[in-house]
Amino acid sequence: MTQVTLHLRDEVYQRAAMVADRSGRPVADVLSESIELSLNPLGVSGNGDNPAEWTNEEVLEAATAKMPAKQDKRLSELLDAQQAGELTEADRAELTALMLTYQRGLLRKAQGLREAVQRGLREPLAP
Length: 127
Fold this sequence. Notes:
The chain has about 130 residues and is mainly alpha-helical. The protein has helices spanning about 10-25, 25-40, 55-65, 70-85, 90-120.
């Protein structure tokens, strides 16, 4: 991992801080994930993201992964606010970040399930 120093506009940092606060994560993690996702939306980088290279434990962990409860609750709140037409600009940014996190987790879970079935660690899901 490489450490870098960034100069951000105050409003960008404030939005990241708000997302971090609402999702219970450090600001640095939110910024790092946002940059990663913007450069690689599907999260496929070749650095440990190939399920064939995962240990059986990693495969099973990915196959059963869930979004943390606090993030899941906040995502539901934001989706409800969006449907009601009550999202602020900051809420929109937070919703986007949480949706990307959710999508990335869903992709990883699907990869884990597929790999678990291929390795015989799990039975295929019933049609």
